[in-house]
Design goal:
This protein is mainly alpha-helical. The protein has twelve helices and six strands. It is about 35% helix and about 5% strand. The strands form three sheets. A two-stranded antiparallel ribbon has the order 1-2. A two-stranded antiparallel sheet has the order 3-4. A two-stranded antiparallel sheet has the order 5-6. The termini are far apart.
């Protein structure tokens, strides 16, 4: 009998210890998860300094050359579109247009229209601002590698150097119909080589002779784009210690932004986790084919929330015209409502279900988002470009 009681007692003791260990383990895992969430939910001011990749060290000469190239339509197939056409300083280096319009068009931003006749399609995605793109990929600890920086809505290339060449190659952005994708860059290089001023500027910027190459073209444009920073918003000042930089209502909006779940994806100094998410954004009817995003998953990379004043309309296809409509969209999908027939609710990112948005909170959140605007950035437009073409292309 004693032996039986002893065995039962030992068994119960082990059971209690086992339960205790299991509970402790569960508690430890919950605490770890909480710490991870707290880490991911961190935000901070943007760095005051910009890093350049080792293969493209910054110089004033290189950035000055890049700026001229950025404004010069000689980079486009028909010499009618420049980088600045869709990324103009007057519109925060983005544009007030849902889908960009490239060759065979005139006007700037919301006034831009195709000429007639026309067989060039719309650019299928909204033009993101280039402001602060030097910080793309930055994490919650302010770490980033400029050679691995995420670019575009679909993350198809890394680094500003690689990004700079993509619009030149794209038919609907800058290339047009008269040159093939595999030849356009060589055409552009030959054009630049024929201009004495560009030959001199490239040789000086890269401290070599015959410096006009595709690689150096991309490096010069990237060097200029790294000067386009807006890192002293009222929120940045607040995070650096000026507690009066944002108002009480904006602070309340900041707390709501965190508590309702927006910060789960919009975190770090750029308010982006730089990860793809499936949301089922409404279609833009200007597009004849549905944009299926990254690897046909309907996922798109989280955009930054900085300088939203300049980047309306919103989302990857510009289908939502105001910040209020964006928040209403998130409220809808959080409640399982489908806004795109091609993307059923079961495909939504799991983080969608953690959103707890309501109409009464939206105005405070929008007030907070306005603290991320910073209008102190380079707005100076060159009076002329070395090609002699119209600065910015056909934007008047």
């Amino acid at each position: 009998m004693f032996k039986i009681r002893f065995i039962i007692g030992v068994s119960i003791a082990f059971l209690i210890i086992g339960c205790k260990n299991a509970n402790e383990k569960a508690s430890d895992e919950a605490a770890l998860k909480k710490r991870k969430i707290a880490l991911l939910n961190r935000v901070s001011a943007l760095p005051l300094l910009v890093k350049s990749p080792d293969k493209n060290e910054f110089s004033d000469e290189k950035a000055a050359l890049g700026k001229l190239l950025f404004y010069d339509p000689i980079l486009s197939g028909d010499k009618d579109v420049a980088c600045v056409t869709c990324h103009h300083p007057n519109t925060g280096y983005a544009e007030f247009l849902d889908l960009s319009i490239g060759p065979n068009a005139s006007g700037l931003g919301s006034r831009r229209r195709f000429k007639s006749p026309n067989d060039i399609p719309f650019v299928k995605r909204n033009a993101q601002t280039i402001l602060n793109s030097a910080f793309n990929g930055i994490d919650v600890n302010n770490r980033y590698d400029p050679e691995k920086a995420s670019m575009f809505w679909d993350e198809r290339v890394k680094s500003l150097e690689m990004q700079a060449l993509e619009p030149i190659r794209a038919l609907e952005e800058m290339r047009g119909n008269n040159f093939s994708e595999d030849k356009i860059l060589n055409v552009v290089i030959d054009r630049l080589k024929s201009i004495p001023e560009y030959r001199e500027l490239f040789d000086t910027a890269f401290d070599s002779v015959n410096a006009i190459t595709i690689a150096n073209l991309s490096k010069a444009i990237a060097a200029f784009e790294r000067t386009l920073v807006a890192n002293n918003s009222r929120f940045d000042k607040y995070m650096r210690g000026d507690k009066d930089a944002i108002h009480i209502s904006e602070k309340d909006g900041f707390e709501l932004f965190k508590s309702v779940g927006c910060i789960n994806c919009h975190n770090g100094p750029m308010f982006s986790d730089y990860l793809p998410h499936v949301l089922g954004v409404p279609r833009n009817n200007k597009l004849s084919e549905i944009d299926k995003g990254i690897q046909d998953t309907f996922a798109f990379r989280t955009p930054s929330l900085r300088n939203l004043r300049f980047t309306a309309p919103y989302m990857h296809n510009g289908s939502l015209t105001t910040l209020k409509r964006v928040l209403e969209f998130y409220e809808d999908i959080a409640n399982g409502k489908e806004r795109n027939a091609d993307v059923p609710a079961e495909k939504f990112d799991p983080l969608v279900h953690e959103l707890k948005l309501s109409v009464k909170e939206m105005s405070l959140i929008i007030s907070f988002l306005n603290t991320l605007n910073d209008e102190e950035f380079d707005k100076e437009i060159p009076e002329a470009v070395p090609s002699g073409l119209t600065v910015g292309g056909n934007i008047n």
